[in-house]
Amino acid sequence: MYVPIVIAIVFLSCCVNVIFLEAIIRQSPGSGNLITFSQFLFIAVEGFIFTTRCGQQKPVIPLKKYISLVIFFFLVNVSNNYALNFNISVPLHIIFRSGSLMANMLLGILILKRQYSTTKYTSVALITVGIIMATLASSQPSVQPKLNKPIDVHNSSHRLPVREYSVYDYTIGISLLTFALLMSARLGIFQEVLFTTYGKHPKEAVFYQ
């Protein structure tokens, strides 16, 4: 009974988050790290109070394991946020991150020696092709429409700044997203092995990670 409501709330929250994120990034492309820091600060305060009981409750998983998680997580988030400075649009950013399926499958084969069914290989291949097509389409600079009215240079306070397209910047952005994708997949495998060994402790993991 509550499942459709929960799904609707999650979907609506994600959509609203993306809308506001894109609006902020358009005004200030370098604000991604500040947004991430604000989110982590809230999680840290909430976790310190309710999860660790103000430091009185010790973690079940050793702290040295969490240090590795934090390093992976830091690299993933900084790379994803920094990529927005290099002609990477928010829609492409979201589409590209869905390539985690391909990255997870690749590292699962290389590290965990897993084998997948033909259906899974085909599905991931189709998704990857779609991501490549979206990336190539976004690599073309957009053409500014011609205006019939002359631009009033004295009243330009409401116009957003137009960033000059650069193939070099775009290549760096895609490279950062690719690096973040592989690090995210490695993070997922590390978490899987960690939770298999010590058990699942989601609230503790959210706080320390």
Sum this structure up briefly.
With 209 residues, the protein is mostly helical. The protein has helices at residues 3-27, 32-50, 63-83, 90-97, 100-111, 118-138, 167-198, 202-208. The protein folds into two domains: 1-57; 62-137 and 167-208, no CATH class.
| Distance between the first and last residues' Cα | 33 Å
The major beta sheet can be summarized as: none
Backbone shape: globular
Tally of structural domains = 2
Number of strands: 0
**Which class of secondary structure composition applies to the elements?**
mainly alpha
> What is the H/E order?
HHHHHHHH
The portion of residues assigned to helices is 55-70%
The radius of gyration over CA amounts to 21 Å
Query: For the residues shown, what is the average pLDDT?
Result: 79
Low-confidence stretches: 142-149, 156-162
Helices, by number, come to 8
> In percent terms, what proportion of residues is strand?
under 5%
Family: Belongs to the nucleotide-sugar transporter family. SLC35B subfamily.
GO molecular function: UDP-N-acetylglucosamine transmembrane transporter activity; UDP-xylose transmembrane transporter activity
GO cellular component, one term: endoplasmic reticulum membrane
Subcellular location: Endomembrane system
